[in-house]
Amino acid sequence: MAIRVLLVEDEPALRESMTQILIQYGYKVISAPDGQTGVALLKKDTNFALVITHLDMPKIEGLTIMQHIKQQCPLAPVIVSSAVRDITLMNQLFDQGMTAFLRRPFSLKELLELVQEILNSD
After folding, report:
1. Is 4 within 8 Å of 26 (Cβ atoms)?
2. Is 33 exposed, middle or buried (0-12, 13-18, 19+ CB in 10 A)?
3. What is the rounded distance in angstroms from the CA atom of residue 21 to the CA atom of residue 27?
4. Average pLDDT value for residue range 24-31
5. Which of 50, 51, 53 has its CA nearest to residue 104?
6. Could you tell me the residue range of the domain that residue 76 belongs to?
């Protein structure tokens, strides 16, 4: 059975690229175009091995979606991506349960390596 990943990303081209590389490496990807949709998916289904989310999104931003992720899917590791360089914000995200931070811009290779590292550490 494929490892299930929830991908919450508001940039369509990036969401598609991220989805395709993860599928290519055998992951089952369920994607959401914004935080509100991501939260709705989590309320219906919590069976995710990993959640990847953009921090700066319309409708529900990253800190709020982190709270929902940890309420609905507390054991799933979470990768947050952003161009933000605010140390206070990073600490808040780690305090809320973020597993790893992926600084933008990132390559698909960096994404894949981070996903594999996190999922293979269990």
Report:
1. no
2. middle
3. 9
4. 97
5. 53
6. 4-117
Band (pLDDT 50/70/90 cuts) for residue 18 is very high
Among 24, 17, 22, 16, smallest CA distance to 4 is for: 22
Instruction: State how far the alpha carbon of 54 is from the alpha carbons of 49, 72, 81, in Å.
Output: 17, 18, 5
Distance (Å, rounded) from C-alpha 12 to C-alpha 41?
18
CATH number of the domain that residue 82 is part of: 3.40.50.2300
Count up the domains in the chain and report the number.
1
pTM summary value? 0.95
For residue 69, what are its two tokens?
């992720």
What are the tokens at 107? Answer: 């390559």
Helices (H) and strands (E) in the chain, counts: 5, 5
Residue 43 belongs to what H/E stretch?
helix 35-44
Scanning the structure block, which residue is given the tokens 């999922």? 119
Q: Please check whether residue 3 is in contact with residue 51, taking contact to mean a CB–CB distance below 8 angstroms.
A: no
Return d(Cα 41, Cα 38) in angstroms, integer.
Answer: 5
